[in-house]
Amino acid sequence: MLAYGISIVLYITSAQGLGATRSQMLFSSAPLLGILFAALILGEKITLFQQIALLLKIGSLFALFQDQHSHEHEYIAVANQQLHNHNDRPA
């Protein structure tokens, strides 16, 4: 429960800083990192399909983080005024 909660907090923090797409790509790479750690620490064998998946994931992360915006975004503050009344209360 603690590890899952910490991972969600870290995911939300990264989504705010990196953006939703980039943080989701990093979050989805956790199983492949687990495979790497299992191979390095426990001596597990990495299958051909896992190797292909790892290469594809690394390539997609590299391509994703190479993309840079060439322009700045401008956000205009909008005041939202909703008309309402309180006549819907029962008598």
UniProtKB/TrEMBL annotation:
**Keyword Transmembrane applies:** yes
Q: Does the keyword Chloroplast apply?
A: no
Give the stretches traversing the membrane. 25-43
InterPro entries according to UniProt:
EamA_dom (IPR000620), EmrE-like (IPR037185)
A Pfam match: EamA
One GO term of the cellular component aspect?
membrane
**Which keywords are on file for this protein?**
Membrane, Transmembrane, Transmembrane helix
In what residue span(s) does the EamA domain sit? 3-64
Please report which protein family the annotation says this sequence is part of: Belongs to the EamA transporter family.
The name this protein goes by in its record: EamA domain-containing protein
Q: Which organism is it from?
A: Hyella patelloides LEGE 07179
